[in-house]
Amino acid sequence: MRKILIVDDQVEVRDLVEVTLRGDEVQILQAASGEEALSVVRSEKPELVLMDVMMPGRLDGLEATRAIKSDPETCGCTVILLTAKGQEADRRRGLEAGAEAYFTKPFSPLALIECIESHLD
Amino acid sequence: MEAANDALVVIDERGIIESCNRSALHLFGYERSELVGRNVKILLPEPIASQHDGFIRHYLETGEKRILGVRGREVEGQRKDGTLIPLDLVVSEVWVGPRRTFLGALRDISERKRAERQIVELNERLERRVIESEQARERMAAILAAVADGIIVTDNDMRVVILNPAAEALLGVPSIAVSGQPLSAAIADDVLSRYIVSAHNSADYPSAVDFAIIDEDGANHVFQAKSSAIGGRADHAQGFVTSIRDVTREREIDRLKTDFISTAAHELRTPLTSIQGFTEVLMTRHDLGAGEAKKFLGYINLQARHLANIIADLLDLSKIEAGDGLAMTLEHFDIGDLAGEVSAMLRPMAANHRFDQNFAATPAAFRADRMKLSQILKNVLGNAIKYSPAGGLIRLWGVAAPEGYEIAISDEGLGMTPEQVQRIFQRFWRADASNTAIEGTGLGMTIVEALVNAHRGRVGVESTVGEGTTITIFLPLGIDDAQDPYC
C-alpha cells in the first residue's frame, strides 16, 4: 500500500486531499505543521508528500522540504508543494528547495490526482 | 613714374598739378588733360580742399612739416564722380633745378578700411556674444541650482563638465574637484558611471537605471539615473546630461503594493481552494456518505463566508487608506451605550462567555465618529470572543481622564507571545492561523489601528499566553473636523 502524506495547517485542505486520493491502494497520512511532517516522514517513510508552503511554526513548507531532501534516510521521498503563493519567484524558490513539483491553490482535485500519478512511477 | 602702382601727382608751390601718372588718372577717374594745370584741390573733398592752399603757404613760410614725411597719413580723396576714397598719402619735396615741387604718392586703402571696419564690427558682435553667453551661463547656473534632481554633464571624452549642487550633495563630491576629471575618477558609484559610459558608447543604451547609495545615517536611498545626448542624436552628441532622481519612496510604495497584492491573492486563494475543491469532489464523487457530504458543504459555506469577510475588510481598509473614506462625522454620544449595543450584537457568538461592563460617564467634551468607533469595538470585542474559545470572563470598561477617554476590553483566552503582539497590526496576520475554528481575515486589528489613528488616538496591547489579552483604546478630547484626521 502506498503512503502519501498531506501537510497543511488547514484541516479543510487536508480533508480535501484525503477525500480526493482516498482508495484501496493508498494510505493517507496527515500533518498540520512542518515539524510534524518531518517526524511523520522519518517514521512512516511515505512515497510522496504534498506540502503546503506557508505554515505557522518553526518550519515552513520550504524548510521542511529542505530537511527532507538533505536527510539521506528521507531524500528519496517525492515532494509536491501545494500552495496559494503562485508567483514565479515562489515557484523557483520551491523547486530550489528540492521539491519535484509545484501545485498552485486553488486546484482541481482531478488535476491533483494526475499530477501525483505522473510523479509516482 | 608711369609704371608705378601708386597714383603719383606732382604739384608746384601754388598747388597746381604739373603731372600725374596713369594710376592717378585711373584712381580719380579723370583724363590727363582735365588734371594738368588745375589746382590739386580738385582731387580733395571739402573742407580739406579749401584749406589746402593754406597748408602749402604755411610750409613755405615756416618750413614746418605738416604734410611732408616718409610716413604716410590717411586722407580722403574725391573722384570726378564725387565719390570719396580713403587714401594713404606720402608727400615729398622734389627740386627740379631751382624749382621746388611736391610729389604726392597716393594709395587706395578702401579695402584696408573695409577690413578695419569689419574687425570693429566683429569685435562688437563678439562682445555682445560674450555678454549673451555670460547671461546664458548665469541662467543655466540658476536652473541647475534650482532643480532638486542631481545633474551631471559630461563631454565627449567622458570627462565631467558640471555637477549641479544636488548632484554634489548626493554623490558627496564638490563640482570644482571633479570638473575636467574622467568619469571613472569623478564618480565612485559603479552602476552610475557604467551607465553614463554606456550612454556615450552605444546608441541603444537603457533609458534609465536604478542605483543605491547609503547616506551618512546608514539609510539606503534608491536613485534613478537618465542620460540624454546634448545636441540631438547620440552619435553626434556633444556630450551627455544625466539627471538623477531620488526614487526611494516610489520604489518602497511599489514594493508595498506588490507585497500587498501577493498577500491578498494568497488570502483569497486559500478559501477558494476549499470552495473549488469540495464542490468538485461533491460533483464527481458519488460514494460519499450523507454525513460526509454535509460536512463538505459546511466547509464550502464557511469558506465562502470567510471570502466575503476578507473582501469586506479589504474594501474597508482601502477606503481608510485612500483617505477619502475617512470623512469623519464627529459627534458627542455616550460611549457606554455604544459598547452595550456592540456587545449585544456579538453576544450570540459568545455562548460560553460572561460579560462585565462598566463605563465611566462620557465627558461632555468627548466627540468621535460613532460608526467608526462602533467598528473598532466590534473588531476588538470579536477578537476577545474568538480567541477565548473556552469561554471565560470578558470585561469592557471605560475610564475618563483629563485629556481623553480610555476604553479597555479584556478576555481570559489564549493570549499571545511578545512576538505575536508585535505583529498584531500587520495585515493578514492572524494569531492562530492554524486554528480554523477561529475565523478571521487578519485585517481586523489593521482596521482598528487605522480608525483609532483617524481619531488621533492610541491602541495598546497587553497579552500573556494562556491568560488572555487586554486591548486599550485611548481617544483624546478636543479633536475637531478641521484637523487633518489621518496622521
Written account of the structure:
The complex is a heterodimer of chains A (121) and B (487). By secondary structure, chain A is an alpha/beta fold. Chain A has a single domain (2-120), classed as 3-Layer(aba) Sandwich (Rossmann fold), CATH 3.40.50. Helix content of chain A is 43%, strand content 22%. Chain A has helices spanning 11-21, 34-44, 61-70, 88-96, 109-119; strands at residues 2-7, 26-31, 48-52, 78-83, 101-104. A five-stranded parallel β-sheet of chain A has the order 2-1-3-4-5, sandwiched between helices. In chain A, strand 3 (48-52), helix 3 (61-70) and strand 4 (78-83) form a beta-alpha-beta unit. In chain A, helix 1 (11-21) crosses helix 5 (109-119) and helix 2 (34-44) runs parallel beside helix 3 (61-70). The longest helix of chain A is centred in the first third of the chain and has 11 residues, at 11-21. Chain A is globular. By secondary structure, chain B is α+β, with helices and mostly antiparallel strands. Chain B is 42% helix and 23% strand. Chain B is built from 14 helices and 17 strands. Chain B has a five-stranded antiparallel β-sheet. Chain B has a five-stranded antiparallel β-sheet with strand order 7-6-10-9-8. In chain B, a hairpin with a 3-residue loop joins strand 16 and strand 17 (468-476). Mean pLDDT of chain B is 86; it is low at 482-487. Chain A binds chain B through residues 9-13, 15-16, 19-20, 32-33, 54-57, 84-87, 104-110, and chain B through 262, 265-267, 269-270, 272-278, 280-281, 284-285, 288, 292, 295-296, 299, 302-303, 432-434, 436.
Short description:
Chain A has helices spanning 11-21, 34-44, 61-70, 88-96, 109-119; strands spanning 2-7, 26-31, 48-52, 78-83, 101-104. With 121 residues, chain A is of the alpha/beta class.
> Which chain pair has the greatest contact?
A-B, 26 and 28 residues
Contiguous uncertain segments of 5+ residues of chain A: none
**Sheet with most strands: strand arrangement of chain A:** 2-1-3-4-5
Task: Write down how many β-strands of chain A occur, each being a DSSP E stretch of 2 or more residues.
Answer: 5
Mean pLDDT of chain A: 89
Q: Determine Rg of chain B (CA atoms, Å).
A: 50 Å
Distance between the termini of chain B: 105 Å
Percent of residues in helices of chain A: 40-55%
What's the average pLDDT of chain B? 86
Shape of chain A: globular
Oligomer: heterodimer
Strand order of the largest sheet of chain B: 2-1-5-4-3
Strand content of chain B: 15-25%
CATH architecture classification name of chain A? 3-Layer(aba) Sandwich
> Which structural category do the helix and sheet elements of chain B fall into?
alpha+beta
Strand content of the residues of chain A, in percent?
A: 15-25%
Q: What is the N-to-C order of secondary-structure elements of chain A (H for helix, E for strand)?
A: EHEHEHEHEH
Point out poorly predicted stretches of chain B: 482-487
Number of helices of chain B: 14
Largest sheet of chain B: 5 strands, antiparallel
